[in-house]
């Protein structure tokens, strides 16, 4: 079972739009509290399966490029569970400053969870090279594909992950992603790109990392 | 054969998996398996028939994914799919005694406040399935993870059908469902609402369910169901770890806990059921009878009334100006903050009273119950004299509630008790009647007896009645205190009831009230008070209860007491150190902000405090934020601290005359379909800080509600937020509606959200695009010219 620890604070600061790296005293205190709450209340759960390249879960040209040289395709869904949402709801009433920190740090937590899942899958698929994770909404991969993904993975039953009619994952701190597996160390798609922000089409995203 | 007759057998055998078998037969993953009832009925009939032949006493219709949401894309109606499913079952059971269960699964949308599905809509969805046909013998509500959804489905069954209802939920290895229900909250809630059997299905295999099943059997007095999977699945191959033999042996073994109904779920086949039956043949059903302890629960948390338990009294407008204002202004956050702080102060149950002549009490009760259970885990006590208000609250409540209250008046008895019985609630019984509060002990006992008797006519257990002997003000009737205590003690002695008592009334009109309250509370507990209704924030009150629990050996090893008080230091009332209000705001010191503002108000005009102290220091923090020297949490900490000062000022103004410091009214809403509202809430905090009155419509807001509110409240500025590209359409719709509403020609609209750009904002007709929260403050200042 995967457990989370040491959430990446500098990443959380970036989500909060901070321009500096060292948090002020108040923010630091809030981070400490938020981290212990998140680690106590999160119930990380994930599920995955192998799909074919013609699966209805996939869509758009970008993903085709990513998977071009891959023999296997993994479809993954992960969530931190419902308690984080309840905590966020509650904290937004009592302390917005704490809520903002919680929100950012739990977004970090779900990404770190995905990183750990990937490591676990790398053990299972020993000998394969993994592409970057690709999620609906990246590039031209349609958000509508979330519908197929949750159905194929039966996320509702398996990890308690639902989709709202406006295609939001629920619990909110959840991720779905596709990873391509290749036996040959083929050139990784987007390898030339400097960060995952560079391959995203949302140029005005407030969380966008500056290109260097 | 009926379900009742089946219960005479030692064990009732359910069927096994359907979906997993259909996948083996070539059904594609992601396809709705229920359409096969119509497209290939022979396959379905065959599977059912094999289960009948394997020995199933009950088989489930192939309707797990048949509901309004899930059948939308199949092209068939719920009615068509249910009817055809029942036809398939009928063919399979022909000539046997096997019963047909209408299988009902989760809607597939999370209920509010986690998702956007309302309890009322969920009820309609379930009603549609239940009334689609009456060709079934029992109803099986299965694989649920949300207790409120399960309860809503059960209620729909009970109100639209007379068939027995079997409810099972799916638990994870940590002993909870995904939505947080525990075996105990499930049993307590569903059993009191009238389920005919309760238990678990899916998610785990026989090995993993054992501890959970044991817990269910420990608390259930109705038959218990176990329908596990064939072990755990491999994610890739989708095969399960357990074979029929092992499954049959292991599951049959679990019958020792007192399980009555057994079957299988994913990965099991008729072969598994055959093995199960063989292994059960030499076993006997043993029902465990446990002494009944009255208890109430939220969706996640059971509170047994086996020692004095604190009921928080603060959610009640009586005598509270600010609370009344909050009700009139629909200020849900104010009410919720009262709920959260009481929970933090040690309340174990919360009383909810929203009776106020200016508002629709029923509608408010529903909204408050929904909102409060979204942020605290405590059971609720719904407090009203109106039966329709109580019933409306009970329908949306997640768990088993207390109804506060019934009294000895005939009108009250005959209107409140049926509701208590129907929803399986516990009830507070006040010892008063048409003639008012009796002065003597005997009269009070008499009324209590009347309430107990009438309640038992409705099938309400004595243990679930909490008699309140009523506290009289000792300064008015000095002998009254003793009468109350005598009645309390005597009633506890004679009956199996519990007792509740609101305590604070005792000291009205006398100095140093906390001392009298605390002493009276301690006296009452010693005479047998179970449920003191108090303000848990008052140190001595919650403290007296905790101390009592230590001294009476309830709080084992004084754990709770030590946890609460090990770091306790008596607060000295030293002068607050030399710090200005501005500094306190800058440093985010909430308590200092309150104290300094209180002091300043003694000789300073409230508006001067706002304009000369609060706003300039907020501007200062704002500038530092813009320069990247203070981060967003720091900015919000300052805002929250300033908010404390504003609260003090508001309280003062509410007391004197109701003068207003508002700089203008602004509506904020996260648009329809969008549940991410943190951005909107950040904007709200900042705007309120600058003295604007924010009407917060929440998230997932209908365009019409925005327009109506703007019109009614004559609002000049509306702020809308949307996080996702999919909800930008709702934002556009909302803007269009405002533009097309007569009377809103002068209303300006500002928008914000992660995926928005200035171009897009202009394209959909907004007046302002706010890239950050602080820009919305600038826009508001422009609009209102202040």
Give the integer mean of the pLDDT values of chain B. Answer: 93
Q: Can you tell me the CATH class of chain A?
A: Alpha Beta
In N-to-C order, the SSE pattern of chain A is HHEHEHHEHHEEE
Strand order in the largest sheet of chain A: 1-2-6-3
CATH superfamily of the largest domain in chain B: Homocysteine-binding-like domain
Task: Provide a short characterization of the protein structure.
With 212 residues, chain A is of the alpha+beta class. Chain A contains seven helices and six strands; from the N terminus they run ααβαβααβααβββ.
Explain how this protein is built.
The complex is a heterodimer of chains A (212) and B (786). With 212 residues, chain A is an alpha+beta fold. Chain A has one domain: NADH Oxidase (3-Layer(aba) Sandwich). Chain A contains 7 helices and 6 strands, in the order H-H-E-H-E-H-H-E-H-H-E-E-E. Chain A has helices at 9-15, 25-41, 61-67, 82-94, 96-124, 145-153, 155-158; strands at residues 45-51, 72-79, 129-130, 162-163, 169-170, 174-182. In chain A, the strands form 2 sheets. A 4-stranded antiparallel β-sheet of chain A has the order 1-2-6-3, sandwiched between helices. A two-stranded antiparallel ribbon of chain A has the order 4-5. The longest helix of chain A has 29 residues, at 96-124. Mean pLDDT of chain A is 88; it is low at 189-194. Chain B is an alpha/beta fold and 786 residues long. Chain B folds into 4 domains: 3-280, TIM Barrel (Alpha-Beta Barrel), CATH 3.20.20; 295-565, Dihydropteroate synthase-like (TIM Barrel, Alpha-Beta Barrel); 581-655, Methyltransferase, Methionine Synthase (B12-binding Domains), Chain A, domain 1 (Orthogonal Bundle); 665-784, Cobalamin-binding domain (Rossmann fold, 3-Layer(aba) Sandwich). Helix content of chain B is 46%, strand content 13%. Chain B is built from 31 helices and 23 strands. Chain B has an 8-stranded parallel β-sheet with strand order 1-8-7-6-5-4-3-2. Chain B has an 8-stranded parallel β-barrel with strand order 11-12-13-14-15-16-17-18, surrounded by 6 helices. In chain B, strand 7, helix 11 (244-253) and strand 8 form a beta-alpha-beta unit. In chain B, helix 20 (513-526) runs parallel beside helix 21. The longest helix of chain B is centred in the last third of the chain and has 24 residues, at 632-655. Chain B is globular, with a radius of gyration of 30 Å. The interface between A and B is large, with 61 and 67 residues.
